[in-house]
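Troubleshooting: if your tokenizer reports a length mismatch, compare against these two reference records.
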Amino acid sequence: MTSESAQDTQAGRDAQASPGDATAAAQAPGTGVAPARKPAAAKPRAGVPVWRTGKPDAFLADAVDVARTAVEGIANPGEVGPHIGARSEGDRVVTHLFESRLGGYLGWQWYAVVTRNSRSKIVTVSELGLLPSEDSILAPEWVPWAKRVRPEDETPLVEETVGEVTEEAVQAEEDDAAEADSEESDEADDAEGPDDDSDDSDETGAE
């Protein structure tokens, strides 16, 4: 009896010492209270790059003029806007972004990837181009033909037309055409017959 009362007293002390554990146990699965769900992560847009996080190389981040000069070399005058920022791509690799003022590319960004060797102060431009952002107008995501086919597309109209034409109908058309040809030939023979008789009678009278 002494041991059981001691255990009950110890259990009560533990419950008072850690009330959070008791609350968590009450909300555990199987008690009728569903645990809180984590918010679903936003799905990245197709075509929009996923940038690495981290502090970019300080020396490369300051090479804005080098990056702008490189981008202006592939763009027309007035198509490169102000500098947006510099993002890290890894060790000693930084991407500089510039606003795009190219017609039809609203929300896009010019980019120039710059890098350098370890302990070097020489900036090298390794890549240039145009990239979409979250505010860009993009084409819809491509869906394979097998997934976007509609029920009415499964039965082409050509098959329905072919199914209506039977062999008997084709044979009947051929017979009609042959009969029409024979009638035309008979009419042609009849038209030539009287001319031949008249010629014979003229020859007899002449004799």
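Reference record two:
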Amino acid sequence: MADLVLTTFDWVPEMPRGFVRDLRVRWALEEAGLPYRIASTPSRSKSAKHFMHQPFGQVPWLTDGEISLFESGAILLHLGQRSTTLMSADPRGRSEAMQWLFAALNSVEMASLPWSMAMFFGDTGDTPAWKRLDDFLKARLKHLEPVLAKRQWLAGTFSIADILMADVLRLVDRFDGLADYPACRNYVARALARPAFAKAHADQMAHFAASDRATAPM
């Protein structure tokens, strides 16, 4: 089996720590018990090698032998194809996991990320722009709420779809955006209670803390 190498930034500011998207991949690797190692790339001076692996200068990317993959959704799908812990071997179960993986990215995160960025920057005044963002997210959550009220996990058993959807929703929950959607909030709580998430989150936080210590003035 080829070595799996997950590359993330060497350092990020305090605010995004715990939310950098290498966490999604760490979580999946921990759930599957796949051996991997972490590599770092500078966040403040991006190299040609960085853009070769990730053309937008973002993280993460994963190398699997001679394969190099960017975009967290694509990486999760790749890992799901390697492990039945992450995606069912049954064709119907695999199809359901894949459709919800893409729903998390294309239907929910499309609405949640602009909303969360507006919350972060304080652009939430009584303006038409903010109302559109808020209404867009609420419309998505309104339709997701009854789905999550009826099932523990999106594709029957826990899968890559839940890793992505829970990670998308926990950013909304960070800004209390799930207050009126108890099924969504409970779903996030179930996912984040998994030991693999706790390990992935702790490891990411430790990674950036180690960078702080390495660059601290003597």
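Descriptive notes for reference record two:
- The longest strand covers residues 4-9.
- The first helix runs from residue 22 to 32.
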